[in-house]
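Thanks for the sequence, V.! I ran UPF0045 protein right away. Repeating your input here for the record:
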Amino acid sequence: MIVAFSVTPLGVGEDVGEYVADAVRVVRESGLPNRTDAMFTSVEGEWDEVMDVVRRAVAAVEARAPRVSLVLKADIRPGVTDGLTSKVETVERHLSR
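Predicted structure:
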């Protein structure tokens, strides 16, 4: 499964990068395959381990912010591994034609 999620602290002003870094740090320390871009962090693994990482990432932001927004999208596809890479490679292959 791949989960793309965004954790946003609310009530802390406009500069939220420091808070978001706390969440991304949790994801990177999890050891699960992951990618972060300007809008979302994607993480790949089994349901329980991915959702635990999301929960802990939210908790890291929640520890410092009075309110937290979570946006989450999941691709639940049993038996697929390395989807973070293979899905992008498929699109790039089609673009190169």
